[in-house]
Amino acid sequence: MIKALIIGLITSLLTFSPAQAQDGETFAEWITGDWAGSGQFSGQESMATLTVEDTLGGRFHAFRYRFAAAANDGGTTYFEGLGLYHAHGERAWTGQWFDSMGNVHLLNGAIDGETLVAHWGDRGRTHYRRVGGNRLEIVDAMQNATGEWQEFARYSLNRLTIGGSAD
Questions:
Q1: How many Cα atoms within 13 Å fall on the side-chain side of residue 62?
Q2: Helices (H) and strands (E) in the chain, counts
Q3: Which pLDDT belongs to residue 119?
Q4: DSSP 21-58
Q5: Measured on CA atoms in the order 7, 10, 15, 17, is the torsion positive or negative?
């Protein structure tokens, strides 16, 4: 099912004219919508999607993140995660993360310029960086025992749609 979704979104990328973001939007307004693109997970080529929508009466932002990556054994690695974020004003975000590997993490994030920097668990970090009006860069990293950040995933996603609500 995830593979079919990713293939469908990639096809949409090739035939869809992206919606235009509006100037003066907050980061939460800007990132809301559907995104798809490619990148790498653990050094392997990968395709990813992200859907961000308001939920629970507009009090939370749901981030649904999926990817499919080539595995070292020749198969495919699939991943799906759901983050529920609550924005505290313009800059501070908190929330909870759940994923298909059985992980549950607290989320603490902050807007730094054009980037939401979200820390998860004890040693994880994701950057959601705005690149122009219609591109989003996602970079995942883990902190090693010496405190250095080691990147394990990087994606460049293009906007497919703007807005949306799960309610």
A1: 19
A2: 2, 10
A3: 97
A4: PPTT--HHHHH-EEEEEEEEETTEEEEEEEEEEEETTT
A5: positive
What tokens appear for 37 in the block?
A: 């693109």
DSSP 8-state class, residue 158: E
Name the DSSP class of 13.
H
pLDDT, tens only, 90-101? 789 999 999 999
Residues 50, 81: Cα–Cα separation, whole Å: 10
Between CA 150 and CA 121 the distance in angstroms is: 15
- Hey, what domains does the chain have and what are their CATH numbers? 2-162 (2.40.128.20)
Q: Give me the phi and psi of 88, to 5 degrees please.
A: -110, 90
pTM of the model: 0.82
Count CA within 13 A, CB hemisphere, residue 123: 11
